[in-house]
Write a structure and sequence with these properties.
This protein has 125 residues and is mainly alpha-helical. It contains seven helices and no strands.
Length: 125
């Protein structure tokens, strides 16, 4: 028998979606998604919401089989081409460092403002 909850989990994993991200998209908790993935049969409303959030049909959840997915990948990606990135990783690394620097400066400024506020409050006391 098909376990629809397990199918949701496998599809979610294949799509690279974490439970908490799916939960946010559906307005649920991560624990609720975990519970859904444990259910053998999902009600119609749940199937509709999940299929919409995952961008797939309800039938895909109902009829999903790992073997079919493997066949789709092997039939469509058999040429062993590698992924080409259109960015320089060093540039991305430097951008990240710069973003972290700006974040740190904002945090430091916020802390300075807190200290100034506390000093003014203490002078009044």
């Amino acid at each position: 028998m098909v376990h629809q909850g397990h199918n949701v989990k496998r599809i979610r994993e294949i799509l690279g979606i974490k439970q908490d991200a799916l939960a946010i998209k559906l307005g649920l908790s991560q624990q609720a998604i975990s519970q859904v993935e444990q259910k053998e049969i999902l009600d119609k409303a749940t199937l509709e919401k999940l299929s919409s959030a995952l961008g797939i049909s309800e039938d895909t959840i109902k009829d999903f089989k790992d073997e079919k997915a493997i066949n789709i990948f092997s039939n469509n990606y058999h040429d062993n081409t590698s992924v080409q990135y259109n960015f320089n990783p060093i540039d991305r690394w430097l951008e990240t460092i710069e973003e972290n620097k700006k974040l740190y400066e904002r945090l430091l400024q916020s802390e300075k403002e807190k200290v100034e506020l506390l000093e003014r409050l203490l002078k009044k006391v």
